[in-house]
Give the backbone structure.
Amino acid sequence: MRSPDGYRHHFVDRREYFLPPGKVVCVGRNYAAHIRELNNETPAEPVLFIKPATALVALELPLSLRFQPCHFETELAVLIGKSLSRCTPEQAQLAIAGLGVGLDLTLRELQDDLKSRGLPWEKAKAFDGSCALSHFVPYSGQDLQDIDVRLTRNGSVVQSGNSAQMLFPVLDLLCYISTFFTLLPGDVVLTGTPEGVGVLEEGDSLKAELDGLVSAETRVAYL
Ligand code: ZN
């Protein structure tokens, strides 16, 4: 299934990934400083939620947002290249097709309201266009726990973290996720955001990057 704007995964050399995009499994509360900034409790197990393929848009295109106010979370994105179900860390590593940077776009006020009433978050997290992804760098054994994730907004760095700060490392996350949800080629895992999340304003220029691997720039427009 194609997402509404015809999104497809691409590699940095502009090659299109051979399969259509699938689901996005997202990890919440994976960096201690971000947990503190939202006054959340540190989880004993990963907090998971899913965005459908219809949430996907290309981070290189203008970010057209239908819902206001929309908050940004900048995250290391892992493109899955092989099916994973109840996998080992070794199998998980062999299944990574690429690394990219993604924005987990969030309607924070709606999410807080839904959370406070004990209701599911999907409307706040999984709406159309809620996951903007960069092109992917083919995975060739890079150290997954030493990747700088950064977001620059209007020339100022607003988010800067390193995957070494994750509570649950990437391969452990893939194994944990695959005990509940089979990961298929074309699926993506968003691995959680470092601190510094905030609201997007009309006209913001954004540059999201994995240091030394990939970067993508966009501009925010509320529809
Ligand atoms: Zn997130």
